[in-house]
Amino acid sequence: NDHGQLGKVNAEINDQNENKEIKENESGYIHNPVPLYYLPQYVLFPKSSKIQSCACGSEHSLVISTSNECFSWGWNEHGNCGIGNNIDQWTPVKINLSNKHIIVKKIAT
Predict the structure, then answer these.
(1) PANTHER family per the record (predicted)?
(2) 3-state secondary structure labels for all residues of 91-106
(3) Can you name the residues that pair with 101 across neighbouring β-strands?
């Protein structure tokens, strides 16, 4: 893990479909004006999106919903979030796969 490939992240999805994560990062992946590296933060999703699973990497995170929608956020300098740009994303953004005929089944970072 010399290069952060395993990440330093914990995530939890509670029974209210709320995702909490803890990250150790100077970029403050979770939208917060003051980085809170070791305190759980809520990540908000549309009420219609029930979270099935999440994958948290060293620089970005992914969530898949029960309707196979994929959301990403985090450091996006190299397009890591898969949303078609290089702008860091501080809140979850739905990855547009509708015109690519792709169905997301599993995620990993």
Answers:
(1) OS09G0560450 PROTEIN (PTHR22870:SF408), REGULATOR OF CHROMOSOME CONDENSATION (PTHR22870)
(2) EEEECCCHHHCCCCCC
(3) none
- Report mean pLDDT in 10-residue bins for the chain, 109 residues: 46 59 50 56 79 86 88 89 90 83 75
DSSP label of 48: T
Cα R_g (the chain), whole angstroms = 13
In a domain, 96, yes or no: yes
- Please tell me the total count of domains within the chain: 1
Q: Is residue 76 part of a domain?
A: yes
- Sheet strands (E) in 2-88: 9-13, 19-23, 41-43, 51-56, 60-65, 70-74
- State pTM to two decimals: 0.62
